[in-house]
Design goal:
Oligomer: single chain
Largest sheet: 6 strands, mixed
Helix content: 25-40%
Radius of gyration: 22 Å
Number of helices: 11
Structural class: alpha/beta
CATH topology of the largest domain: Nucleotidyltransferase, domain 5
Order of helices and strands: HHHHHEEEEHEHHEHHH
Length: 308
């Protein structure tokens, strides 16, 4: 097992990026502690619970109470309305993105994130298509698209993943009908020399935003070809080099499936839980940051440092 990560930030700075936006308590009732509210929000995110659901779960689960640090002899758990206001504070000030960046900065400072290569991919997250609601309409920011023979309605999460470690380094979100390639330039890092992607990114090197950038235009784009475009395997028994090359590309790209599985299977985020792309993107930033920490722990590292 590898040695623990070295602490890089004072624990007093752990929640410094939330504190400027958090109520001071000079007016009204004293607010709950930032750490307690953030832990409650993380439980909601990890277990895909509603505001009321996570409040009930804390009363029912000793493990959740312990994680929250709630002692029922001294206080009650924060109620659903308090969590709602805290979640809106995070969403309005893009603090999910700030936490994602802070966690990645710690991982990078401790040598857990490599450089030089990025994997691009996207996944569709379904949204409720029913119009049986107060507005009698679907979410206007979500759209439908066809994937294979199936029509899907919702949004699309676009990620850039470190080709060496599989950690997510960038996240964006769009409506489901937006093509994967349109977000590519926002996901590539400045020091990347090679980029991997599936056939949805074919032609990326010819796009205007790539050609106009000195850094992006120099990158080696290793994009999988469509299976139907490969030549038939030769009959003389020799090595099929085309398929061997495509297999090598796919073996690298497979790393992106691990964070997708964490978000959609382990945390249950297979369907949007809020209206609008921005609110769901805030949740995605927290989930992919958690995915990076989970993968770090599975690799045998322990994160003993605090995020500032």
């Amino acid at each position: 097992m590898s040695a623990p990560l070295d602490p890089s930030v004072n624990s007093d700075a752990t929640y410094s990026f939330i504190r400027p936006f958090y109520p001071s308590g000079k007016r009204g009732r004293p607010p709950k502690g930032i750490e307690k509210m953030l832990r409650m929000y993380l439980l909601q995110t990890w277990f895909n619970l509603s505001d009321e659901g996570v409040e009930d779960a804390i009363y029912d689960s000793y493990a959740m109470r312990t994680f929250m640090g709630v002692n029922f002899c001294e206080e009650q758990a924060p109620d659903a309305t308090t969590l709602l206001h805290f979640r809106h504070l995070l969403e309005e000030n893009h603090l999910g993105e700030a936490m994602f960046a802070a966690i990645n900065a710690v991982l990078e400072a401790n040598g857990c994130i490599m450089h030089g290569g990025t994997i691009l991919d996207a996944t569709i997250i379904n949204a409720p298509s029913s119009t049986k609601n107060k507005d009698k309409a679907r979410d206007p920011e979500m759209h439908q698209t066809k994937k294979g023979n199936e029509w899907r309605f919702g949004m699309k999460a676009h990620v850039g993943v470190d080709a060496g470690t599989g950690y997510v380094t960038a996240v964006t979100a769009t409506a489901a009908n937006e093509h994967d390639i349109t977000q590519a330039s926002a996901l590539i890092r400045a020091d990347d020399t090679v980029v991997y992607g599936d056939s949805g990114y074919l032609g990326i090197e010819k796009r205007a935003e790539i050609l106009s950038s000195e850094n992006l235009s120099r990158i080696d784009y290793r994009i999988n070809r469509r299976p139907g475009k490969l030549h038939s395997q030769s009959d003389h028994g020799g090595q099929d080099w085309e398929r061997a090359i495509e297999h090598q590309k796919s073996s690298v790209r497979s790393k992106v499936e691990h964070p997708f599985r964490f978000v959609k299977v382990q945390c249950g985020f297979q369907k949007t839980v809020y209206h609008g792309i921005a609110k769901n993107l805030n949740r995605l930033h927290l989930l992919f940051a958690s995915s990076n920490l989970w993968m770090c722990a599975r690799a045998g590292r322990t994160l003993s440092c605090s995020m500032g």
